[in-house]
């Protein structure tokens, strides 16, 4: 049975073994290196802990950037994997030229992941400002994009079947976007890398979302590997090539994706064991850049970049929800993570003070944007004792989940609300939870975020395999 699987899906079993090895090695690598990171000043404070015990004290330094040993173990394992993938007894049985081309693609993915990890660690050490760190993934994506271009990767997209005049207007069932498609992939690399970093603020959420996305992509890959059919055909000694019901190149692409993602899952699960609530290490921007580049490398070089984007629906929603603050319509404080209520350990939404003196167009835009969000219970208003709205909860997915769950800020004193705020000062508004509010703990919020991520993946599968079959029947 093992031989049959290895014959049909070259080196897949090796990837599974490396995932297990990666978990064990990464777990102990983090245990052995965290004191070193702490000694070198790479540390942070967990502001959401109210327990004053030694380990959870809000003043205790927690080692940061522990995504680096996780990434190092992954890259080491993937390098070891290369001989099994290309020179083992179960390689693809294709021409030497094709093997060389595929090896070039694989190495370009590793180079992009290497550079993303390095630049992420540089960001952790130098604390690069957002305006300068946004283009970093563009640099990391250059190797895989160059190989994608050199290998003749498709830049065409399928035209929807309706409205029917589209096919007549475009004169075909697909349209070649050319350089626009490469621009899309570069933007995808930037988004996938930064969105993991943006949806952060509680223990384990960065690693957790990356694991759910990777598991979803692996499940999508497995849909193209018909194990029952393949195993029956693989027992036939005459089957010298990959036996499958789909084209060999399609299966090879999804095997490529699995070979990248399975070791990533193993090392990430080890990091989650240390980073989950209550966190003993912080992952830092190193892991966010590393995870984003692994996912985007698998998606672009596996030729399913559009499907990959569907699995980032929660991250897209978080970005869209944050846009009013990111583009200056609503003041944006430096930190937008929820607050912890004193003495209770329950989280309440962090809030921001609305600007009193601002341009007329900003006031108009704010009056248009905020009411629908408040109606949908994605944003909670903050009122003073005179009934005037003086602020709102910060526009993030974490705060939105708390508001949907029932957490509400209390009414603040009018004198406090009327205090002048300097133009460049922090607009954050510290508000306690309202009496009887349905606040939840940090651990519970993590489960809610993971639930949203899983629902997002289910939505992605529905769009990809149900809605797409209606809108793009040519795919079938």
From TrEMBL:
Localization per Swiss-Prot or TrEMBL: Endoplasmic reticulum membrane
Known cofactor(s): Mg(2+)
Transmembrane segments: 12-32, 66-86, 106-126, 138-159, 251-274, 286-304, 310-330, 445-467
Listed pathway(s): Protein modification; protein glycosylation
Keywords noted in UniProt: Endoplasmic reticulum, Glycosyltransferase, Magnesium, Membrane, Metal-binding, Transferase, Transmembrane, Transmembrane helix
Main location: endoplasmic reticulum
Catalytic reaction list: a di-trans,poly-cis-dolichyl phosphate + UDP-N-acetyl-alpha-D-glucosamine = an N-acetyl-alpha-D-glucosaminyl-diphospho-di-trans,poly-cis-dolichol + UMP
CC annotations in GO: endoplasmic reticulum membrane
GO molecular function: glycosyltransferase activity; metal ion binding; UDP-N-acetylglucosamine-dolichyl-phosphate N-acetylglucosaminephosphotransferase activity
Record EC number: 2.7.8.15
GO biological process: dolichol-linked oligosaccharide biosynthetic process
A Pfam family assignment: Glycos_transf_4
Top-level class of the enzyme under EC nomenclature: transferase
Organism domain of life: Eukaryota
Membrane topology: Multi-pass membrane protein
Known function: UDP-N-acetylglucosamine--dolichyl-phosphate N-acetylglucosaminephosphotransferase that operates in the biosynthetic pathway of dolichol-linked oligosaccharides, the glycan precursors employed in protein asparagine (N)-glycosylation. The assembly of dolichol-linked oligosaccharides begins on the cytosolic side of the endoplasmic reticulum membrane and finishes in its lumen. The sequential addition of sugars to dolichol pyrophosphate produces dolichol-linked oligosaccharides containing fourteen sugars, including two GlcNAcs, nine mannoses and three glucoses.
Family per similarity comment: Belongs to the glycosyltransferase 4 family.
The name this protein goes by in its record: UDP-N-acetylglucosamine--dolichyl-phosphate N-acetylglucosaminephosphotransferase
Species in which this protein is naturally found: Malassezia yamatoensis
């Amino acid at each position: 049975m093992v031989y049959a699987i290895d014959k049909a899906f070259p080196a897949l079993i090796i990837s599974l073994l490396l995932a297990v090895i990666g978990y064990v090695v990464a777990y102990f690598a983090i245990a052995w290196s965290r004191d070193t990171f702490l000694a070198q000043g790479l540390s942070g404070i967990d502001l959401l802990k109210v327990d004053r015990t030694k380990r959870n004290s809000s003043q205790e330094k927690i080692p940061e950037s522990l995504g680096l040993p996780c990434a190092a173990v992954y890259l080491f394992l993937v390098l070891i994997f290369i001989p099994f993938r290309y020179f083992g007894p179960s390689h693809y049985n294709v021409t030497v030229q094709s093997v060389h081309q595929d090896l070039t693609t694989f190495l370009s993915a590793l180079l992009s992941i290497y550079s993303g990890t390095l630049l992420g660690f540089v960001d952790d050490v130098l604390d690069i400002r957002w305006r300068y760190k946004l283009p970093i993934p563009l640099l990391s994506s250059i190797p895989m994009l160059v190989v994608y271009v050199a290998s003749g990767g498709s830049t065409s997209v399928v035209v929807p079947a309706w409205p029917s005049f589209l096919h007549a207007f475009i004169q075909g069932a697909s349209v070649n976007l050319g350089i626009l498609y490469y621009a899309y992939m570069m933007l995808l690399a930037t988004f996938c890398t930064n969105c993991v970093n943006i949806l952060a603020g509680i223990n384990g959420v960065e690693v957790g979302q990356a694991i759910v996305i990777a598991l979803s992509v692996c499940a999508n890959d497995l849909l193209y590997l018909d194990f029952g059919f393949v195993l029956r055909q693989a027992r036939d000694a005459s089957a010298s090539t990959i036996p499958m019901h789909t084209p060999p190149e399609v299966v090879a692409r999804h095997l490529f994706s699995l070979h990248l993602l399975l070791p990533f899952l193993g090392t990430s699960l080890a990091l989650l064991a240390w980073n989950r609530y209550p966190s003993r290490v912080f992952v830092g921007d190193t892991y966010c850049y590393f995870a984003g580049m692994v996912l985007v490398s698998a998606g672009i070089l596996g030729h399913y970049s559009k499907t990959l984007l569907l699995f980032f629906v929660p991250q897209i929603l978080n970005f869209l929800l944050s846009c009013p603050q990111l583009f200056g319509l609503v003041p944006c404080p430096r930190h937008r993570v929820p607050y912890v209520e004193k003495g209770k350990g329950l989280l309440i939404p962090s809030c921001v003070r609305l600007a009193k003196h601002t341009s007329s167009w900003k006031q108009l835009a704010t009056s248009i944007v905020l009411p629908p969000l408040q109606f949908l219970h994605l944003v909670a208003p903050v009122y003073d004792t005179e009934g005037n709205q003086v602020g709102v909860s910060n526009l993030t997915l974490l705060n939105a989940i708390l508001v949907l769950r029932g957490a509400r800020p209390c009414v603040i004193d009018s004198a406090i609300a009327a205090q002048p705020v300097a133009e460049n000062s922090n607009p954050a508004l510290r508000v306690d939870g309202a009496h009887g509010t349905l606040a939840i703990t940090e651990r519970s919020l993590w489960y809610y975020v993971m639930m949203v991520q899983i629902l997002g993946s289910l939505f992605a599968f529905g769009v990809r395999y149900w809605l797409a079959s209606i809108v793009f029947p040519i795919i079938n």
